[in-house]
Every structure is written in structure tokens, then in C-alpha cells.
Design brief:
- The protein has 143 residues and is of the alpha+beta class.
- The protein has a single domain (25-142), classed as Nuclear Transport Factor 2, Chain: A (Roll), CATH 3.10.450.
- The protein is 41% helix and 37% strand.
- A six-stranded mixed beta sheet has the order 2-1-6-5-4-3, covered by helices on one side.
- A hairpin with a 2-residue loop joins strand 5 and strand 6.
- Keywords: Signal.
- Residues 1-19 form the signal peptide.
- InterPro entries: DUF4440, NTF2-like_dom_sf.
- It comes from Persicitalea jodogahamensis.
């Protein structure tokens, strides 16, 4: 009887964790879809929703490391000052995993279609953390 109870408890826990992972996965994918729509609407401020609003946010790009939400936002504004440079964004998710409790890791490809400025693209890795019940990007490495 004791083994049966333990087995049932373990199965229940595993089922809850799998369901939670599915919900978390969908939340992250929905956030990325919303960010894509915000970018394609020319709204960098709305696009930033999904990043950790902290001085500890880390963005790693071709020019090195930028720390902080506000600094990251300002860099986006400088690099993409108008709709022509922003183009149309497309994300392709190559990998999404949950290596630990409250942590997610995303690897993908990005592409900007820019008829006037020329297309650009590359890869990215995003480290997400669930903070206060909300998934946020704490580190973005885009190249």
C-alpha cells in the first residue's frame, strides 16, 4: 500500500510538472509572437515588454555587453531609428527547454526583411526566468 501511494504521488507530481511546462512554453511563445507583432508595428517600447525591467538585464551583441533595461531600450532606438531600418521581423524558434525550475532557454533565428536598408539576420539565445509569476528575458545574446 505504501509503495502504491508513493507511486501515485510521484505520477501526480510528474503530471503537474509536465502541464506546467506546457503552460510555460506557451506563455513564452506567446510573448515572442507579441514582441514580433509589436516590432512589425514599429513599436520598440511595446517590444521591450518581455525583457526584465532591471539594471541587471544583460544584452550581448556584436558591440559587446549592455547592462540594464533602459540602456538596452536606448540601443534599440539608436540602431533602429525608423521603420525602414526596423523592417519586418521574423523569429524561428530552434530550441526551447526548461533546464531548471523557473528557468527557460530559447535558441532561434531572427530575420529582418528591409527592402530599403537591406535584409539582415542571425541567431539568438534567450535566458528566461519566471519572476513574480511572469516569464521575462534576463539575458539576450543576439548575433
Amino acid at each position: 500500500m505504501r509503495n502504491t501511494t508513493l507511486t501515485c504521488l510521484l505520477l501526480l507530481t510528474a503530471t503537474i510538472l509536465v502541464a506546467q511546462s506546457r503552460n510555460d512554453r506557451q506563455t513564452i511563445l506567446t510573448t515572442l509572437d507579441r514582441q514580433t507583432a509589436d516590432w512589425n508595428a514599429g513599436n520598440i517600447k511595446a517590444f521591450m515588454n518581455g525583457y526584465w525591467e532591471s539594471d541587471s538585464l544583460m544584452f550581448v551583441g556584436k558591440n559587446g555587453i549592455t547592462y540594464g533595461y533602459q540602456n538596452t531600450y536606448q540601443n534599440y532606438l539608436k540602431r533602429y531609428p525608423d521603420r525602414a531600418t526596423m523592417g519586418t521581423l521574423k523569429f524561428d524558434i530552434l530550441h526551447l527547454s526548461f533546464p531548471g525550475k523557473g528557468v527557460a532557454f530559447v535558441v532561434g533565428k531572427w530575420h529582418l526583411t528591409r527592402p530599403e536598408a537591406g535584409d539582415v539576420g542571425g541567431h539568438y539565445t534567450l535566458l528566461w526566468r519566471k519572476m513574480n509569476g511572469k516569464w521575462v528575458v534576463v539575458c539576450d545574446h543576439t548575433s
